[in-house]
Design brief:
small GTPase binding, EVI5L protein, Rab-GAP_TBC_sf, Rab-GAP-TBC_dom, coiled coil
Length: 356
């Protein structure tokens, strides 16, 4: 078994050239350089957009930098496919010796057709004994069935796959949730988890999705998060508040003055890993990173969102902020998820301090 993602090295240390690079071939080194260059372009681009800040006059300059970033993407696309094929074939070597490049690639987004296999590899769910119990579990009945049925209709109601009571999506979603409630009697069924399972089912067959979900619950703090006591969610909120106070003191004071509690906006971030915040294309990018880096990415993205919006938020009252979180924040990155990911990767996060 691999170490759980929570044990990743302290991310607040700037990642300079690591020992990784000696295991990389020249073309992999070149790719790493390309990816870093792309980040630089994106960053310059969001800076120029911020300085322009709506004034039409020099909006041209920001368009230029963003289009050069995207034409650069065109021929990266092909390389990326070939590369991901290699990553999957030589998985153990990448996982052990090319961590920095793998991390960077995952942050750039796993190509759609590779997601199913890469997610399974990332959480070591490729050969789990529990997979063989799956069909047996489906024949049993679970005390949670009524609850599961009730929530399934509310999971991705807009998505084709899950539309209608007799849709294939609702069927398999029910199966996986029920099977899980039988292997983990203490947690049983927990609200919110259907969004995670639903996302897995959009990528892979139900047996595989079941195995990945079992792994996520066991190894990624999710089981703790979904226990009936909700104590772990309380801890996440407490940790997030600490970061907020430390890094955005002005916003923190404003939230408090308006009695706008962290749990009001951040609970769903942790419980559904942003799957109920962002449209799927953006949320899936965050999920890619979650599969490799664990729950830390939720803290990073959450803080990035607050940094982006601090200037607007401090001018709003409680009602205004609630609306802003529901209506504005979800769609800010529809056209450029990369900017969110880049900002999140720059957030200062000290894992040791969080543990303490």
């Amino acid at each position: 078994a691999m170490a759980s993602p929570a044990a990743s090295p302290d991310s607040s240390v700037p990642s300079g050239p690591t020992s990784d690079s000696e295991n990389l071939s020249p073309d992999e080194l070149e790719l790493l350089a390309k990816l870093e260059e792309q980040n630089r372009l994106l960053e310059a681009d969001s800076k120029s957009m911020r300085s322009v800040n709506g004034s039409r006059r020099n909006s041209g300059s920001s368009l230029v930098s963003s289009s050069s970033a995207s034409s650069n993407l065109g021929h990266l696309e092909e390389d990326t496919w070939i590369l991901w094929g290699r990553v999957v074939n030589e998985w153990d070597e990448w996982r052990k010796k090319k961590e920095k490049l793998l991390k960077e690639l995952i942050r750039k987004g796993i190509p759609h057709h590779f997601r199913a296999i890469v997610w399974q590899l990332l959480c070591s769910a490729t050969d789990m004994p529990v997979k063989n119990q799956y069909s047996e579990l489906l024949k049993m009945s679970s005390p949670c069935e009524k609850l599961i049925r009730r929530d399934i209709a509310r999971t991705y109601p807009e998505h084709e796959f899950f539309k209608g009571q007799d849709s294939l999506g609702q069927e398999v979603l029910f199966n996986v949730m029920k099977a899980y409630s039988l292997v983990d009697r203490e947690v049983g069924y927990c609200q919110g988890s259907a969004f995670i399972v639903g996302l897995l089912l959009m990528q892979m067959p139900e047996e595989e999705a079941f195995c990945v979900f079992v792994r996520l619950m066991q190894e990624y703090r999710l089981r703790e998060l979904f226990k009936p006591s909700m104590a772990e969610l309380g801890l996440c909120i407490y940790q997030f508040e600490y970061l907020l106070q430390e890094q955005l003191p002005e916003l923190n004071v404003h939230f408090r003055s308006q009695s706008f509690l962290t749990s009001m906006y951040a609970s769903s971030w942790f419980l559904t890993l942003f799957l109920t915040t962002f449209p799927l294309p953006v949320a899936t990018r965050v999920f890619d990173i979650f599969m490799y880096e664990g729950l830390e990415i939720v803290f990073r993205v959450g803080l990035a969102l607050l940094q982006f919006n601090q200037a607007e938020l401090v001018q709003l009252d409680m009602e205004g902020m609630s609306q802003f979180f529901q209506k504005v924040i979800p769609h800010q990155f529809d056209s450029c998820p990369d900017k969110l990911i880049l900002k999140a990767s720059q957030v200062k996060f000290n894992a040791k301090k969080m543990k303490r």
